[in-house]
Amino acid sequence: MTSADRVKEYIDYVFTQLPLVSSRYALDALIGQYTGMEPEVRTALTQAFETHAATLGYNYADQASNLYRVQASLHEEREEWGEAVACILRVPINSNRRTIGEEERLSHYTHLMRLYLEDENVSQARVYLNKASSLLTSEIPTSLALSFTLYKARILDLTGKYLDAAFRYRDLSYETSLDPEDRYQSLSRAVLCAILAPAGQQRVKILSTLYRDERASSLSYYEALTCVFQDQILRPVHTNLLVAALFPHHLAQGKDGRSPLDHAVLEHNLLALSRMYCTISFSSLGRWLGVEAVEAERLASRMIREGRVNARIHQVDGMMRIPSDGSLHPTPSTKEARLSQMCTETEAAVRRIGQLNPSWLASVSDEAPLGNDEVERGMAFI
């Protein structure tokens, strides 16, 4: 009789001959030796256990949890992340016969977050992030809370939410319970995510904090960080420093053929140019950014609309104008004011005529006259 046969026979005896409490102790002892068994013995043990647990599993939830977690740890040692996930998913976390506390449930979900991240399955990692978020309380152990924060930061990073990820990594970089090297790596990731984040006030806020951290000066791309923080143009020498430090998903090209780094550099350089010029044509802006004038105008329009660039677009002239007084809507020039007044007075006259002679107005007008709101919107592009 082989070792596998003996293990199978022993499990049959435990389930059928021993009392419930004794059988649990016997199974705990056997599962404790699982890692030292030969592969065929492990397989026989699992098959025999599941055969009996199919009908009596609710009495052996703890033993099933221990068995599947031990199996998962062996797969993790071999970096078989998909198999490890399959084992953890079989742990009976929802059981009517077994009381499961919030801490154990949070630990279970956090473990799955890590395994899915290692398996490069971000969508499933997000599922368990959402489940775990509702379980966070002040009573959760610090080590578990830190693990959750780290995996949440990684998920935010992988899904392109760089600003949120930067804040999470920054918090980890200040955590004294972590090793200095781990804190430094968190700082580095916080800086990289902040550089990739959409240009705007929130990005300026976190960059200010990170740039003033004394540890930041030892980063290999500190020169690039300085340019970003000081609103200077990022040149190829700086982007090369960033490329060497970024992770593959930061450099992966999207549907438009550009990577997150490419988009970040375009947005940052446009913002930097808005600090340097009062007026710039879209053709010149495109040359600075290395894109066509139409694309430069499209990018500027989006950033202005989102409130991330303080400027106005003048489509007739093909220009972007930046107010020198810092106001988002600068006082119009004398020419613009006179033109606006003339349009308003003309509109008022047309309406008065229409009130006195509606049939005449209908005969000479194919469209309804513009209102003041439409006139003002039109003036925004003059």
Order of helices and strands: HHHHHHHHHHHHHHHEHHEEHHH
> Helix- and strand-based class?
mainly alpha
Which blocks of ≥5 consecutive residues have pLDDT under 50? 326-334, 366-382
Major sheet attributes: 3 strands, antiparallel
Number of strands: 3
Share of helix, binned: 55-70%
- Spatial arrangement of strands, main beta sheet: 1-3-2
Question: Quick check: average pLDDT?
Answer: 84
Oligomeric state as shown: single chain
End-to-end span in angstroms?
A: 93 Å
Which percent band covers the strand fraction? Answer: under 5%
Write down the Rg: 32 Å
Categorize the overall geometry.
Answer: elongated
> What's the number of helices?
20
Subcellular location: Cytoplasm; Nucleus
GO cellular component, one term: cytosol
Family: Belongs to the CSN4 family.
InterPro entries: PCI_dom (IPR000717), PSMD12-CSN4-like_N (IPR054559), PSMD12/CSN4 (IPR040134), WH-like_DNA-bd_sf (IPR036388), WH_DNA-bd_sf (IPR036390)
